[in-house]
Amino acid sequence: MRLCVFEATNHAGPGVVIGEEVADLRAAAPHLSSNPVDILAAGAAGAETVERALKSAPRYPLSKVKLRAPVGRPGKILGIGLNYRDHAKETGREPPTTQMWFNKQATCLHGPFDPVLMPAVSTALDYEVELVVVIGKHGRHVPRERAHEIIGGYMTGCDYSVRDWQRATQTMIMGKGFDTHGPVGPWITTTDEAGDVGNLSLKCWVNGELRQNGNTGDMIFDVAAQIEHLTKAFALEPGDLLFTGTPAGVGAAFTPPKFVKVGDKVRVEVERLGVIEAMIAQETAQTRIG
User: What sections of the chain are H helices per DSSP?
Assistant: First the structure.
């Protein structure tokens, strides 16, 4: 199942993408939450509600709707650094023996086709195609063999990174959490449809030039290992997002660096999970309070 949040004329809500159409779930089941994560967290009951709704839900052409980020405001957005061997190599560093985590701010969450902002304070904006895990159940001290039990689904994501701000501090947090720099989507692919995510291609194009071309099989720490490690320290909860690392080909690794510029089009794809795409637009440093 591919759960989305869509916007049509004078209407927005959760849907299921079926082929080239979007089924409007709340038209058939008005009590459903507008956040697909709540459907995932309900487990079998949520899936059954969706299946009943699909029998009578009206459908819209996918080409006629706007897709939003398919998750509500996450409690946590976490990312792992240097989790692909080839990416570690291109940075001149040894593959890590310990998982290196950082957080992206909740306000970085962004729609799959919305413009991504070039910061007013930097031009060192870089791209990172990533498999994103959507947590569907509460989990603490989860062993790797049970990690799949708390996964609700998967998305394509791009971990935009402001490299000069990232390198300015050891935590990397400031460079990883700028507003709009966490686009995800285009929908949540549930685990039954996604299948084995241990062998998926990941690709990123900038203005049609293929920059990244990797495979999730090259992760140093796979998804199960990530969940086992994180839940030793704190709980993962429904709606939390895990950015699971990026392969080689980031702009910072080129000589000279190939950072994106205003007007560039960045397209990222994870096999079986879909494509997201953004134009880079200039941020205006406008004070906003309240």
Answer: 25-28, 36-41, 44-54, 85-90, 163-167, 173-176, 191-194, 223-233
Side-chain half-sphere exposure of 259, counting CA atoms within 13 A = 15
**Residue 232 in tokens:** 């030793």
118 within 8 A of 282, measured Cβ to Cβ: yes
H/E stretch holding 190? strand 182-190
Q: Are residues 229 and 86 in the same domain?
A: yes
Out of 17, 39, 68, pick the residue that ends a domain.
68
Are 48 and 40 in contact by the 8 Å Cβ rule? The answer is no
pLDDT digits (tens, 9 = 90+) for 159-198: 999 999 999 988 899 999 999 999 999 999 999 999 999 9
- 145 and 6, same domain (yes or no): no
130 C-beta neighbours (distance < 10 Å), count: 29
Q: At 146, which CATH number?
A: 3.90.850.10
Q: Is 152 helix (H, G, I), strand (E, B) or coil?
A: strand
Instruction: Work out the number of other CB atoms within 10 angstroms of the CB of residue 239.
Output: 22
Q: How many CB atoms lie within 10 A of CB 102?
A: 21
Pairing assessment for the beta strands 265-270 and 274-282 based on DSSP bridges = antiparallel
Whether this prediction's pTM lies above 0.90 is answered by yes
Residue 63 lies in a domain: yes
C-alpha distances (whole Å) from 198 to each of 4, 190, 202, 223, 270 are 23, 15, 11, 8, 12
Domain span including residue 167: 77-282
Q: Which two tokens stand for residue 272?
A: 């079986």
DSSP annotation of 125 reads E
pLDDT the model gives residue 10: 77
